[in-house]
Specification:
Strands 3-2-1-4-5-6-7 form a seven-stranded parallel β-sheet, with helices on both faces. The chain is globular. The chain contains ten helices and seven strands. The chain has helices spanning about 20-30, 40-50, 65-70, 95-125, 145-165, 185-190, 190-195, 205-215, 225-235, 240-255; strands at about 10, 35, 55, 75-80, 130-135, 170-175, 220. The chain is of the alpha/beta class. This is SDR family oxidoreductase. Keywords: Oxidoreductase. Belongs to the short-chain dehydrogenases/reductases (SDR) family.
């Protein structure tokens, strides 16, 4: 048991399946009271029934008032897990501005709005925990999808900013950055995901394991795939070499399409 979350009041967005459902189950198993949020009301309800939680379906950007009410007025842990992966069109192709806008809204601005709503109470109480499901794409990048890569960089940057700004005031922040995880999003990533992510993909429960180890150790950066730390260091140490290597992967992917 992780003492830091026992009895906590928790909100998990995008929790109708995949990583979100795994996180909701794990928090509930630790004795937390969990709000399960998802756009799909049926899936949210199924997970909530399974774990003895409370389903609050709807858009992750606007769930906080109803979630706070469902938890009796207080939120201790907020898991910004809802995310989208969209192809915004390659250079020279028609620009999918709608896809870009949706990616910014869900992958970045939903986190910003949540923090804006949560921080006044957390700072007054001297404590709170913000969990951001980012992606290894937020530390590195991902071929084939500019909106996902760019907005996940933004999500990571915002989590980092929250941590460095408020950690001395009791706010804990964790950024989860896995590579491939066996979820619907991996299936939807198509041939790029099959090439880059599928060979080392892990289960959603493995991501939950990594987060709870990180909470117990009070770590900001959560790497369910430990090798991502080596890739991140290599990228920083020699960007040209790293970009060359990624370009080789890009060319290999293009040759197989």
């Amino acid at each position: 048991m992780v003492e830091a979350v026992q009895g906590a009041k928790v909100v998990v967005t995008g929790a109708g399946g995949g990583i979100g459902a795994a996180l909701a189950r794990r928090f509930a198993g630790q004795g937390a009271k969990v709000v399960v949020n998802d756009l799909d009301a049926e899936r949210a309800g199924a997970v909530a029934d399974e774990i003895g939680g409370i389903a609050v379906p709807g858009d992750a950007s606007s769930v906080l008032p109803d979630a706070r009410d469902a938890l009796g007025g207080t939120i201790d842990v907020y898991c910004a897990n809802a995310g989208v992966g969209r192809d915004g069109g390659e250079p020279g192709e028609p620009l999918d501005e709608q896809g870009w806008a949706l990616s910014w809204d869900v992958n970045v601005m939903a986190h910003v709005r949540a923090a804006h709503a949560l921080l006044p109470d957390w700072l007054e109480r001297g404590g709170g925990r913000f969990v951001s499901t980012v992606s290894a794409a937020g530390l590195l990048t991902m071929i084939g999808t500019a909106p996902y890569s760019v907005t996940k960089h933004g999500a990571y940057a915002f989590a980092e900013w929250l941590s460095l700004t408020y950690r001395h005031r009791g706010v804990k922040v964790h950024a989860i950055c896995p590579q491939g995880v066996r979820t619907d999003m991996l299936t939807a990533s198509g041939s790029a995901g099959d090439l880059v992510l599928k060979p080392t993909a892990i289960e959603p429960d493995d991501v939950a394991d990594a987060l709870f180890r990180g909470i117990d150790e009070d770590r900001f950066l959560i790497l369910p795939h430990p090798e991502v730390a080596e890739y991140y260091q290599a990228r920083a140490a020699d960007p040209e070499r790293w970009l060359g290597g990624m370009n080789r992967i890009q060319r290999h992917w293009e040759s197989t399409r």
